[in-house]
Amino acid sequence: MRRVYTRTPGSRTVVHYTRRKPKAAHCAQCGDVLKGTTRLRPSMQGKTAKSSRRPERPYGGMLCAACMRRTIVEQVRRQP
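and the corresponding structure tokens:
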């Protein structure tokens, strides 16, 4: 829990305790931090729009852009 100092309408400063943000999502192949994903707890992430939770591309939210490109190129090359 982290302390957040909040000013009330009665001009008092009170302490609210909130849960900390989780770590950023990481790429499944290289371990790099994923861009375009939200750092929210699962309870809050369900309330956000699906398009804002992860990138709208193949493997969005699982692989970074470089690993995604590499994976797609490998798949195309393997096809008979």
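(Above: one complete record from the training split.) The helical segments are 42-45, 50-53, 65-78.
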